[in-house]
UniProtKB/TrEMBL annotation:
Superkingdom of this protein's organism: Eukaryota
Coiled coil: none
The organism of origin for this protein: Datura stramonium
KW Nucleotide-binding (keyword) present: yes
Keyword Nucleotide-binding: yes
Alphabetical keyword list: Nucleotide-binding
Pfam families found in the cross-reference section: Ras
Protein name in the entry: Septum-promoting GTP-binding protein 1
C-alpha cells in the first residue's frame, strides 16, 4: 500500500474514532476550559506585516507577515483562541530538540503572547493551542513542546502519538544540537511512523553572523540529515519572524492538499528551504 493510501486510511480511522468518542471529547473539553482561563468573546486578531528594518544582511529582509496569509492566500486564517465547538478539527504537532535551542520562543512567536500565558505546563511538556479558520474550516493546532533534557525523554511517546507532524529542531550556531537530531528522530519514529517530518534550524539571525565557510558546512550537514529523514528543511528565526508562520502553512497545505507551495531556497546567507 502506498504512503498516500496509508495516510487516507489513517484519516478515515481517526474520523470514525472521533465520532464514537465525541461525548467524551466534549466532557474533557469542559474540564479543559475550567482548568485554563479562556477569554470568551475575544475579537479576532488583526494580522500585521512586520516592518522591514535596514540591515546589511539580505536575509533579515525576509521577515514575513505575522499570520497565515493575506486576503488572496488560500491559507488565510484567523486566530480565535480556545474553542469548544464540535466542528473544530484538532491537529496535534510535536516539537522535539535539545534544551536552549529556541523551541519555546519559536512556538510563542507563532501562537502569540496571549496564548503563551494560557499554556498548560506539565513535567517535561509545554502545551499550547492556536485555532485557525481556513476556507471556512476551523482548525486547532495543538502544539506539544517537549523539554530537551534527559528527563523529558519519557514524554516522547505521549507527545508523538497521533501527531500529524513532528518538528525536529536544532540551533544553527551549535553543531552538537544538529548532531543530536538523529537521536530525536529515531526515538520519535518508534511511536509515530506517519507524521510529516520537518527539520528546523533556529536562531538564523545569529547564524548569518558566522563565517561563510562555517555556514556552508552547517547547511551541507543539515541538508544531508533532512534527506536521510525525508524531511523538509527550514532555517528560521523567532526574533525576526523568519519562516515561522510559513512552516505551519506548509503543514496545512500538505495535510489538506491546498494549492500553496513553498519555494526552495539554497542561497548561503539566506534562510534555507530545502525539500
Amino acid at each position: 500500500m502506498t504512503k498516500l493510501c496509508r495516510k487516507i486510511v489513517q484519516v478515515n480511522i481517526r474520523w470514525k474514532i472521533f465520532d464514537k468518542v465525541s461525548i467524551f471529547r466534549e466532557f474533557f473539553r469542559f474540564i479543559w476550559e475550567r482548568i485554563i482561563v479562556c477569554s470568551a468573546g475575544r475579537k479576532p486578531v488583526r494580522y500585521r506585516r512586520l516592518s522591514r528594518k535596514t540591515s546589511s544582511t539580505p536575509a533579515m529582509e525576509e521577515a514575513e507577515e505575522y499570520g497565515v496569509g493575506g486576503e488572496d492566500d488560500p491559507l488565510t486564517a484567523t486566530c480565535s483562541g480556545y474553542d469548544s465547538d464540535s466542528d473544530l478539527v484538532t491537529l496535534k504537532i510535536s516539537i522535539l530538540g535539545d534544551c536552549q535551542i529556541g523551541k519555546t520562543s519559536f512556538v510563542i512567536k507563532y501562537v502569540g503572547d496571549e496564548q503563551e500565558k494560557r499554556c498548560l505546563q506539565m513535567k517535561g511538556l509545554n502545551l499550547m493551542d492556536k485555532t485557525l479558520v481556513v476556507r471556512g474550516a476551523r482548525i486547532a493546532f495543538r502544539l506539544w513542546d517537549v523539554g530537551g533534557d534527559h528527563s523529558s525523554i519519557d514524554q516522547i511517546p505521549i507527545a508523538c502519538k497521533d501527531a500529524v507532524a513532528i518538528l525536529f529542531m536544532f540551533d544553527l550556531t551549535s553543531r552538537s544540537t544538529l548532531n543530536n537530531v538523529i537521536s530525536w528522530y529515531s526515538e520519535a519514529r518508534k511511536w509515530n511512523q506517519t507524521a510529516i517530518p520537518i527539520l528546523i534550524g533556529t536562531k538564523f539571525d545569529d547564524f548569518v553572523q558566522l563565517p561563510p565557510d562555517i555556514q556552508w558546512s552547517v547547511v551541507t550537514q543539515a541538508r544531508a540529515y533532512a534527506k536521510a529523514m525525508k524531511a523538509t528543511l527550514f532555517f528560521s528565526s523567532a526574533t525576526h519572524n523568519i519562516n515561522v508562520n510559513k512552516i505551519f502553512k506548509f503543514i496545512l497545505a500538505k495535510l489538506f492538499n491546498l494549492p500553496w507551495t513553498v519555494k526552495r531556497n539554497l542561497t548561503i546567507g539566506e534562510p534555507i528551504i530545502d525539500f
